[in-house]
Design goal:
Oligomer: single chain
Number of helices: 6
Subcellular location: Golgi apparatus membrane
Helix content: 10-25%
Strand order of the largest sheet: 1-5-6-7-4-10-13-15
Low-confidence stretches: 6-24, 254-265
Membrane topology: Single-pass type II membrane protein
GO cellular component, one term: Golgi membrane
Main location: Golgi
Protein name: Trichome birefringence-like N-terminal domain-containing protein
Radius of gyration: 20 Å
Shape: globular
Mean pLDDT: 88
Order of helices and strands: EEEHEHEEEEEEEEHEEHEHH
């Protein structure tokens, strides 16, 4: 199903706060603080036709709006340009931008689609094709295709008769669908931790060996290494920029708890302010170390969108109980739209501007 959308005129936006992505070479865009900014958010989610109900916290009754009015400000010496959607549309004219991963990839894909939709000059034409595993938004006047390819592990889960669902750590049968994009943004981690009824596989296959279970960080490392080898062997990085989204944190656990039992009601419940003032010195999570190690060992240039520390502060930015009708519990995994994923895209765009064409 293709949904064609017309875009009405939009009020003007404030110009860039900086013409450069970094004040100096080696600037770390991921260290800094969240600051109040009344010019935010960059768009109104109610005017964006791509936002699924689960991410539209205001429409679902969230009463506070302070979480929308926060801007990521990198540490001294760095300047992060305000996102210029019109410039992005021009720069990526005729190209394909693809997000490959789970629902957190969808979070970032929807965010970028809304940021670009808000920047379209009127009259703008947009073709929206929702689907599974592929959804897309085409900005027709720019021939820019924004694609989401949904996959939970990057590697395969295959149902085998008489055996069950097998997580194959060395298999990526559908990866050919990702070749040809001009910007690829990969993500996986969230589903590797699931157990019990939420687990979507029964066995783990690693080469010629099959296991009932495996240490999840070890399994993640093996699966991500398969992805890395595939990128090195199949992606022409002279024409395709490759990013890894990084580890998006959940806030079910209180930072003061030693136990891994979720906090009652979800610890993001009723949170309306970030956890603290600054990010940058936090301990590295085991899954973060895996991602960094795998990327460092690759022969292809892959940019890490190292979002963990700055996102850990945003305990206020989850849907919580405002994830829509028919959804029980408290969602402290995904992020409201508009909201935190806009900063991920702003930083990614800055990194792209810092890289040479």
């Amino acid at each position: 199903m293709v949904i064609f959308l017309a875009v009405a005129g939009l009020p003007g936006r404030r110009s860039l706060v900086s013409t450069s992505a970094s004040g100096s070479a080696g600037c770390d865009l991921f260290r800094g603080r969240w600051v109040a900014d009344e010019s935010y958010p960059l768009y109104n989610a109610s005017s964006c036709p791509f936002v699924p109900d689960v991410f539209d916290c205001r429409r679902n009754g969230r009463p506070d709006s302070g979480y929308l009015k926060l801007r990521w400000s990198p540490a001294a010496g760095c300047e992060l340009p305000r996102f210029d959607g019109a410039a992005f549309l021009r720069r990526w004219r005729g190209k394909t931008v693809m997000f490959v991963g789970d629902s957190l990839s969808m979070n970032q894909w929807v965010s970028l689609a809304c940021m670009l939709h808000a920047a379209l000059p009127a009259p703008g034409r947009v073709a929206y094709v929702p689907g599974e595993p592929v959804s897309s938004v085409r900005f027709v006047d720019y021939d820019l295709l924004l694609v989401l390819y949904h996959t939970t592990f990057l590697v395969d889960v295959v149902t085998e008769e008489g055996v069950g669902r097998v997580l194959r750590l060395d298999s990526m049968r559908n990866a050919s669908a990702w070749i040809g994009a001009h910007l690829l943004v990969f993500n996986t981690w969230h589903w590797w931790t699931y157990r019990g009824k939420s687990q979507v596989w029964d066995l783990v296959q690693d080469g010629n060996s099959t296991y009932r279970d495996m240490d999840r960080v070890t399994a993640f490392s093996k699966g991500l290494s398969t992805w890395a080898r595939w990128v090195d062997a199949n992606i022409d990085t002279s024409r395709t920029r490759v990013f890894f989204q990084g580890i998006s944190p959940s806030h079910y656990m209180s930072k003061q708890q030693d136990s891994e039992v979720p906090a009652r009601g979800g610890s993001c419940l009723k949170q309306t302010r970030p956890l603290q003032d600054a990010a940058g010195g936090e301990a590295v999570l085991p899954e973060q170390a895996v991602v960094r190690g795998v990327i460092d060992a690759m022969t292809s240039p892959v940019s890490l969108l190292d979002i963990t520390a700055l996102s850990q502060l945003r305990i206020d930015a989850h849907p919580s109980v405002y994830a829509g009708r028919g959804r029980d519990g408290c969602d402290c995994t995904h992020w409201c739209i508009a909201g935190l994923p806009d900063a991920w895209n702003q930083i990614m765009n800055a990194m792209l501007l810092m890289q040479k064409d």
